[in-house]
Amino acid sequence: MRDTILAKKPAKASATPADDADFILHSLQEAFEAKKRYAASEPEMLEFYRQMLLIRRFEEKAGQLYGLGLIGGFCHLYIGQEAVAIGLQSALDSDRDSVITGYRDHGHMLAYGIDPRVIMAELTGREAGISKGKGGSMHMFSTSHKFYGGHGIVGAQVALGGGLALAHQYNADGGLCLAYFGDGAANQGQVYETFNMAALWKLPIVFVIENNGYAMGTAVKRGSAETEFYRRGTAFRIPGMKVNGMDVLEVRAAAEVAFAHARAGKGPVLMECNTYRYRGHSMSDPAKYRTREEVQEQRDHHDPIEGLKKTLIEAGKTEDELKAIDKAIRADVAAAADFAETSPEPGAQELYTDVLVEEY
Amino acid sequence: MGIELKMPALSPTMEQGTLAKWLKQEGDKIAPGDIIAEIETDKATMEFEAIDEGVLEKILVPAGTEDVAVGAVIALIVGEGESGGEAAAPAPAAAPVAALEPVEAPAAKAEKPAAAAPAADPAIPAGTQLVSTTVREALRDAMAEEMRADPRVFVMGEEVAEYQGAYKVTQGLLAEFGPKRVIDTPITEYGFAGIGTGAAMGGLRPIVEFMTFNFAMQAIDHIINSAAKTNYMSGGQMRCPIVFRGPNGAASRVGAQHSQNYGPWYASVPGLIVIAPYDAADAKGLMKAAIRSEDPVVFLENELVYGRSFDVPALDDYVLPIGKARVVREGRDVTIVSYSIGVGLALEAANTLAGEGIDAEVIDLRTLRPLDRQTVLESLAKTNRLIVAEEGWPTCSIASEIVTICMEEGFDHLDAPVLRVCNEDVPLPYAANLEKLALIDAARIAEAARKVCYAK
Questions:
Q1: Taking residues A179-196, what's their average pLDDT?
Q2: Could you give the dihedral angle defined by the CA atoms of residues A167, A170, A171 and A176, in that order, rounded to the nearest 10 degrees?
């Protein structure tokens, strides 16, 4: 049906999106559907498994440290959503590409292989933390990885990501920006301001909506007139993709299609990854707006780690081999927690550093 | 060797709670993610989830127990088929309850480092030609020179390119630098302020023009939360070398929504540089400094001053120090502190006062953050009387700040209270007569000067 509507005229290169009458909003979804699961090699699959499990165990430990009062303020856990960050970021060219996200950012940093100790130490507000203890859970950055945060204002990272993409285009460095946001942020006005400019200027950016079903306590249906978020770029002629965010191989396959599009100078892509967070919005949210059965159903039948474990076992891996991975990760996470608990707090003089770069 | 399960906190302020219910019983197998118990406070109920694998060996606190202290051991888990220990979380060194107490203030209170004395304006070599230039041209020249010198510098905003600028400040830039570096944006302040800020984080040096700063209120989140705070929040990793510029303050008969001075708003934010020059030479020298700065700069211009001409030294690279006020007229009897369009009115008042035998000194702050306290206090020490002239509201103003500085650091030099001459505390009206009544003028500044001199 789509094809008959869309395939009227031959495509031709054009100066602005508005000139391109043949713009095929659904082309990327079709390309993705044609090869929906990434054919990962066994070492790749094991690495995805290890990375997702690291995020899971790290976040469980963070929740525990929060419960002990060692982590303060807001702390948003990524448990359940691991396949999104790993599937996407494993497809990046990390020498060139940049990443930006909101405040649920621990997983995206771990996906880069950033030392869990410096992340955990930031959560506990210690000098050894990646932001010297001055940012906290929501405000972490690693410019050496081209990871630009870690932003606490819902939706701000989308426009900032547009700027990172503008810098890639301006410098002609071949890189793209991967900008994550949630189903809640997707209702912010600046998201659409950014869509407009990104499409107008053909910026190399992949917008990823991590739709975990709830904007804090508001279910998607209660807060969004259009709940199929991948369609929300249509008004700007941004192609959309709908992806099962609970399957790392599917996310990775979608990432390859989206990145190739953005890298080829064809402009932005809007990818919706449908996922689920097992915990509350933040640690202080008891998540009473959904049933225990709903959460259990996701855990039992859609868990990204269990799903990949099944694939690995079918491919010949044994329970024991996978258990050994878990054991090593638990030890690393325990060491990170230990480091984060025992590291000193920032020196009092740090209060006044980093306000401005220069002296005036 | 088991794993101790401890009473969790639902929030950093919680100290105790009720163990409402056990969902697992002694002897039950436990997998990570299983809900073991429900914990209640007066505010909420939370499920207590297992993160370790094993068997629930012993329940130490029965269901229904109230006032269980956070951190108390409530149950024991033993690893299944393992000796435990290894997989166990390391016990926190300090008692968990202690960890909930507010962090002690550092033993030695940090001293705020003294600000370095701002650099003096560069000496202008004798014989340098002075060229009469409008503020509009001076700003354009500054941007063009910096764009020639640094390919990372670009301009973006509404009507900056093909239209040549809504107030013609960017005139000619498109022709010289092309559309890649002079970018017309849609009318979308929040969006393009964010894109500009992100581009600065990504290594470019954007100059973001707001058609007027009134519209930047739609974008103020990015100016403050994204541009000003990120360096600090990242422990010094993130840079945001960006200039937000455009006309600020009252124009002429454009009504309340288009007539406001945002100087005090931005000047209250740590992490920002705020510049508000008056004449063309300062506009040029400070714009060049702003573009070169590694910090985010809010550069406040004034529409009514764009067309005024001033002498600008014809130097290849005229750059002025940020954070340095300038004594624009020397005097003995009273100091008038001002900035932006107020400086012209202060000079006019000083001329009037001179005819009456009052010799006023006029200081142009030029930079509102960081504020040059030293120049203000030195002048006060000389004249012993000070007033502030500000085209803006009085409440929480730059004037209020100057008054505070004089009280805190110049009290012994004061022979009269510091007075402020500001706009009336009302939204700016449209009617010509009312608008005139609302805005500061030279007569009101002169009157305040007479008052602190106890003249007449």
A1: 98
A2: 50
